[in-house]
# Entry
Amino acid sequence: MKRVNRLRPVALMAALLFSTFASARVELAATAFREADFRGAEKITATCSTQTPSFFCEDGQDLTLITSKGVDYVFDGAGQLVAAFGKQQRGQRLGDYSIDARFNLIPFESEVPGLALLIDGAYATPTDVAGSWREGDEGLLVGTFTARVGGFEVERTLTLQSGVDTIGVELTARRVDGADAPSTLQLVVPGIGRTAAPVVKIGHGDSFTLNPSEQAFPDPTYASLQVNNNNRDFALVMRPAPGSAGVSATYMRPNRIAFQAQVGAAAGAAYTFDLGLYPGHNELVRYSQEQYLELPGLFNPNILGRLSLIVVRILEFVHQYVPSWGLSIIVLTLLFRALIWPLISTQTKSMFGMQRLQPKLQELQKKYKDDREKLTQETMALYREAGVNPAGGCLPIIVQMPLFIILWRVFVNFEFNEGFLWLPDLGQADPFYILPILYVAVMIATSYFSARGNPQMLRQSLIINVVFVFIIVGFPAGVLVYYVVSMLVQVIQYWLLSRGQPAPVVAAPAKRSK
# Structure
């Protein structure tokens, strides 16, 4: 009975862990959202009591939550971006929206929301607001909004696409009455999260300016805010649509970037902004899929990033000839295993040789238990005589581990946007836990070959693999497809090489002294 009670906490922890990662595929969807649904909404109340309240303090906010794989967005009734929650892993279900969370990329203490329209540098709260969201073709979600901002009628269209984090923005501002002089219109991003000093970049031509002064850059290729310059964390990137004319980019203190344009003084004068806003990971694979890699200076990848991009290109090449991303991963895995087949063969032969030597090694340990230097000399002599390299098993692990890390980076950020067999999405965890079970099965088989003749090592290996399953249960399914197929090939290779090998002698356990 006591044994059962000891196991209950473990079973409860396992159930909680499994329920955390068990989820169906996350689709693009719009639902009503209230300001009070933010965790820590009392901070909004506290902010609104100060002399410099934020945009959240306006009454009658009509908020909409847009859930997607990479980012969960919150828009107000005028189509302004109130919050953008970047996800650590694509397909993650947040469910807990803290207004001042580090991964909320729109700072709520700002006086303006994201994609706000400023007129001559000033923000006016939109009035006469009307708008709605509707589902479009091919996984699109489209929001259309109208409002009055100062002396302008504003029409705004927002487009989101399943599997894409960039928001398509088209905003037309039309002057209602004549004015004495032209006006400067600015579509602004008010900062990035809680970062006090973000990295600011504005691209122009084939170059870019880092942390620019407050000046206008005509015909920009992009404007961005990045949490840091270390190729990680999050970024906000504004990119004009091809053919945009009359637009310039500017940096505005303290931490704002904006696209701006001039509009005439006559009644009816108008300008249309056409751009994309990317709120998401400052990461090479995402930039590749969002078509941002060609932007000058936006991203400077390290060696792992460059290798990740090579894997992406190989995967995309394979997918041109293989109709499924899941099959493409399997083909990529088989290609890699074919490449390292000779290396694994050498390692396996060394492993079997070590197994045959175990009885002799144990005899040496007993004989020279009080003379460690002599034990080392005799052990190395035994290795030389048998033609066995004790370090032969390390090289394959050293070769495979970087690839595993690279594949993790790729599959966490790559948008497969399709399932495979029972898997709803290769970029998300297996909701049925079939892959973790298969992982345990192939690892047991691997342990059987690698620990032949050593029951104690076999038991230790099995325990480690059972514990590790609680870690890999939340891995993207694509990573586990690679790992299960890779280890299955290794088991087959072990079996082929073990044929004709003499069974290792299991040394008798040492008798305990009385």
Notes: The first helix runs from residue 2 to 21.
